[in-house]
Amino acid sequence: MGTYCYMKCRSGCAACCIAPHISTPIPNMPDGKPAGIPCKNLDEHLNCRIWNTLDYPPLCRAFLPNEEHCGEERHQALKILTQLELETAPGS
Fold first, then answer.
1. 0.85 surpassed by pTM
2. What 3-state class would DSSP assign to 51?
3. Which of 33, 70, 83, 84 is 20 to 30 A removed from 90 (C-alpha atoms)?
4. Is residue 92 part of a domain?
5. Are 6 and 66 within 8 A, CB to CB?
6. Which residues in 10-26 are b (16+ Cβ under 10 Å) and which e?
7. What's the total number of domains in the chain?
């Protein structure tokens, strides 16, 4: 098991709002979100429009950014989270 070093979420990263598949309904995406598709709650700067509101889903609240999953920059985070998605997808 890896060591977790929790960090502050990077503004404009959105890797966790793009890479994973979300099977449950979330605001503006009643059928969930396919892997690799940006969440519809992202603005043009890749920041969440509903963060810190009552609409922010519990699933999203539960994800805590850490160096193991987020790397040192956005492209590294996308690569890591996409690989994790592929490794944990049903049938993989």
1. yes
2. coil
3. 70
4. no
5. yes
6. beebbbbbbbbebeeeb
7. 1
| pLDDT tens per residue, range 70-79 | 999 999 999 9
Domain, as residue range, for 5 = 1-87
Please give the share of the chain, as a percent, with pLDDT higher than 90: 82
Question: What confidence tens digit (pLDDT) does each residue in 32-41 have?
Answer: 999 999 999 9
Query: Could you tell me which of 61, 71, 87, 77 has the C-alpha nearest to residue 14?
Result: 77
In angstroms, the Cα distances linking 38 to 5, 7, 20 are 26, 22, 9
Q: Which helix (H) or strand (E) holds 87?
A: helix 74-88
Residue type, 12: G
